[in-house]
Design brief:
Cathepsin D, subunit A, domain 1; 6-stranded mixed β-barrel; 26 strands; binds 2-acetamido-2-deoxy-beta-D-glucopyranose
């Protein structure tokens, strides 16, 4: 099946290499959870629409943290009109193991480059956290209660609880004094059925931290806990991996193309263009690289321009379909280089079981003020490097 609802994939074993940028720690094998397809492989259009709504909400609340932390408003944010009670956002989750506390206890967390805070389920959480492993700060000799509560809101839900600091280890790298939420309430979107991991770790910048503390990776850099201020993702059905502190040279081929981070809040970059079959159809856009979003999302005018070039049918709600047999070969140009999107990622699958028409992985969302979101549909085609030290992002072809 192309899009299993849950798949468990183990990364390749680490190999010793002598190349200059060889990784210096073991990558974290990732697991994937996504729920946009029916069991027969056709697209669950309602789930896709839900996902689009949660994506829109995800990129609304955080800018208020940005404004609070940096004392100016987030230039691309547009305030909209609140929640509508949707729950499972169908957002893709790439999750893996970390350990927390002394003695260390292991937990799984969703690694999300579209947010900056960390939360785990706590002992006072009760039924809303059932099915998730509980972090008990009283069982950790290094935990410290900060005596404050915080309610973290995401596109799909919230996690409310007490702020603590403790030791956190990711892939063998340990950071002390890491602030996180020990939850007393999970929103429905984080219930065990919709959200298999125990908690969530944000990998964006501190400007987006709701409680305004350094996110785990930035704290690691500040404490000199990682060999290099870089982390990198391979998000693919086969061997997905997150590496902290370096780049895994086994997972890409050819050159890495870098582009500057244009704003350190989300991982925001300039995108030269989006096109298909060798034609550039959209140019001069800005985008956010988000491991927690499934689709490639763009503004309605440009997305329509893209699909009009192929006579696509609008399905409403920002979705389009094309004959499955003649899907365009879409590409995204970044840093002067064109990255092809495979048909496995760009073609989401038939509209319904057996239909000759398929849904495109580029969708329109006008709630994001022209900002594009590079989610899985793009990220599953590249090895993606988040270079904090040089404030840039790198993209390379998968090996
Ligand atoms: C929010 O949207 C709903 C429906 O779209 C509308 O009825 C309501 O008036 C809006 N509320 C605000 C505060 O704009
Ligand atoms: C998942 O949560 C529900 C309540 O939300 C609970 O009934 C169920 O037992 C939980 N599953 C597991 C495996 O704990
Ligand atoms: C930890 O223990 C203290 C003292 O017994 C108690 O007041 C507190 O509620 C406990 N915290 C948690 C998260 O269970
Ligand atoms: C946290 O925020 C969510 C969503 O805004 C809300 O539903 C929930 O009641 C809040 N929880 C607390 C304890 O404030
Ligand atoms: C712990 O981290 C906080 C920021 O999250 C910082 O203000 C504080 O100084 C740190 N404490 C120590 C002992 O490093
Ligand atoms: C990689 O970059 C080098 C130097 O810029 C260039 O000569 C070479 O053609 C590039 N290789 C590929 C596969 O793009
Ligand atoms: C898309 O790419 C494939 C493989 O390179 C090629 O066979 C096909 O003709 C291309 N389709 C179009 C419409 O260009
Ligand atoms: C690119 O877009 C920005 C903002 O949307 C705009 O200010 C600028 O003029 C555009 N540049 C070109 C060359 O179209």
């Amino acid at each position: 099946m192309r899009f299993p609802s849950v798949s468990l994939i183990v990364a390749l074993p680490m190999l010793a290499t002598a190349v200059p940028h060889a990784r210096s720690s073991t990558g974290i094998p990732l697991m994937k959870h996504s729920s946009l397809h029916n069991v027969d492989g056709s697209v669950n259009l309602d789930a896709v629409k839900l996902h689009m709504a949660t994506t829109e909400r995800k990129f609304q609340p955080e800018p208020s943290a940005y404004a609070k932390n940096l004392g100016r408003s987030f230039p691309l944010a547009k305030r909209t009109n609140g929640s509508d009670g949707l729950t499972d956002g169908g957002n893709v989750l790439w999750y893996g193991e970390i350990s927390v506390g002394t003695p260390p206890a292991t937990f799984t967390v969703d690694f999300d480059t579209g947010s900056s805070d960390l939360f785990l389920a706590g002992p006072k959480c009760g039924s809303t956290c059932s099915g998730h492993k509980i972090f008990n700060p009283n069982a950790s000799s290094t935990s410290k209660d900060l005596g404050q509560t915080f309610n973290a809101t995401y596109g799909e839900g919230n996690a409310f609880g007490e702020l603590y600091t403790d030791v956190v280890t990711v892939a063998g790298y340990t950071v002390t004094n890491q602030t996180f939420i020990v939850a007393e309430q999970y929103g429905e979107a984080f219930s065990n059925q919709s959200f298999p991991p125990d908690g969530l770790m944000g990998l964006a910048f501190q400007a987006l931290s709701g409680y305004d503390s350094p996110p785990v990776f930035l704290n690691m850099i500040a404490q000199n806990a990682v060999p290099k201020p870089v982390f990198a993702f391979k998000l693919a059905e086969s061997g997905p991996e997150l590496l902290f502190g370096g780049i895994n040279t086994d997972l890409y081929q050819g050159n890495i193309t870098y582009t500057p981070v244009t704003q350190e809040a989300y991982w925001q970059i300039y995108i030269d263009g989006v096109g298909a079959n060798g034609q550039q159809l959209v140019t001069n856009i800005s985008g956010i690289v988000d491991t927690g979003t499934t689709l490639l999302t763009g503004d309605a005018t440009n997305v329509a321009k893209f699909y009009d070039a192929f006579g696509a049918t609008s399905l409403g709600g920002g979705l389009y379909s094309l004959p499955c047999a003649s899907f365009p070969n879409a590409s995204v140009e970044i840093g002067g280089r064109s990255f092809a999107l495979s048909s496995e990622t760009f073609n989401l699958g038939p509209i319904s079981s057996g239909s000759p028409d398929c849904v495109g992985g580029l969708v329109a969302n006008d709630g994001l003020n022209g900002l594009w979101i590079l989610g899985d549909v793009f990220l599953m085609n590249t090895y993606t490097i988040f270079d904090v030290g040089n404030s840039r992002m790198g993209f390379a072809d998968l090996a």
